[in-house]
Automatic annotation (TrEMBL):
Subcellular locations according to the entry: Cytoplasm
Residues that coordinate or bind S-adenosyl-L-methionine: 81, 86, 132-133, 150
Similarity remark: Belongs to the methyltransferase superfamily. RNA methyltransferase RsmG family.
Source superkingdom: Bacteria
The name this protein goes by in its record: Ribosomal RNA small subunit methyltransferase G
GO molecular function list: methyltransferase activity
Region (Disordered): 1-21
Gene3D superfamilies the UniProt entry points to: Vaccinia Virus protein VP39
Species of provenance: Allokutzneria oryzae
Predominant location: cytoplasm
Record's keyword terms, sorted: Cytoplasm, Methyltransferase, rRNA processing, S-adenosyl-L-methionine, Transferase
Length: 237
């Protein structure tokens, strides 16, 4: 390599954009620290691609945190397939009243989540290794007020995994892409079979994000079984 050639530089973490203080409030410094952890160790561990570093704030941190108003005060929330900690860690920063469980099956990612929660002092966060469909997980984490997930699975599978973790009346808050409405229509029967009500598509963060976060909401309803279901069908005839 001659003197005129330059090696490509590593992505440089960027500071918080306009609107970040509105989303994270007085805890913006924690969001900045999480951003730094993702941009460095998160990339080294393969949790975030190097090209994502420049887009961490809008596509990952703020995209996750803007859904905070969809959860009741002091709710017990399970983040299924938390991975790099999205949306769970930004939610814990923006909504410290939430009691968050980060559920993740991979040991390496579990270690990362535990380290992040410890380094940021997120006392409301618990990390659990496991999968939502496992019996022991449903026994230990069932009855949650809300379950959230981001880029985990199609809605039909997600409903089957997540709705059993909810109390009746609890809500699945699934972060989805632009095809959310099509997914809701396609998977309506599977969602109902899993114990869900009519799914609703909402957007959040339009005031601070160029591309708002698209969310699918599904409430856990009472599931009719056996005699009750047969009785209802007879009445409908």
């Amino acid at each position: 390599m001659n003197e005129t050639e330059q090696r490509p530089s590593a992505p440089t973490p960027t500071g918080p954009p306009p609107g970040a203080d509105q989303v994270f409030g007085s805890r913006l410094d924690l969001a900045v620290r999480f951003h730094g952890l993702l941009a460095q160790r998160g990339v080294e561990l393969g949790l975030i691609g190097p090209r994502e570093v420049e887009r961490l704030w809008d596509r990952h941190l703020m995209n996750s945190a803007v859904i905070g108003d969809l959860f009741p005060q002091n709710a017990r929330v399970v983040d299924v397939g938390s991975g790099a900690g999205l949306p769970g860690i930004p939610l814990a920063i923006a909504r410290p009243d939430l009691r968050l469980t980060l559920l993740e099956p991979m040991a390496r990612r579990v270690g990362w989540l535990e380290d992040v929660a410890d380094e940021l002092g997120l006392s409301s966060v618990t990390v659990v290794r496991g999968r939502a469909e496992e019996k022991v997980v449903r026994q230990n984490l069932g009855g949650a007020d809300a379950v959230t997930a981001r880029a985990v699975a199609p809605l039909a599978k997600l409903a089957g995994w997540c709705l059993p973790l909810l109390r009746t009346g609890g809500q699945l808050v699934a972060l989805k892409g632009a095809s959310a409405a099509e997914e809701v229509e396609r998977d309506a029967v599977a969602v109902k079979a899993a114990g869900g009500g009519v799914a609703e598509v909402v957007a959040r963060g339009g005031e601070v994000l160029e591309v708002p976060t698209t969310v699918v909401l599904v409430q856990r309803v009472e599931v009719e079984r056996g005699r009750d279901a047969r009785r209802r069908r007879r009445k409908e005839r």
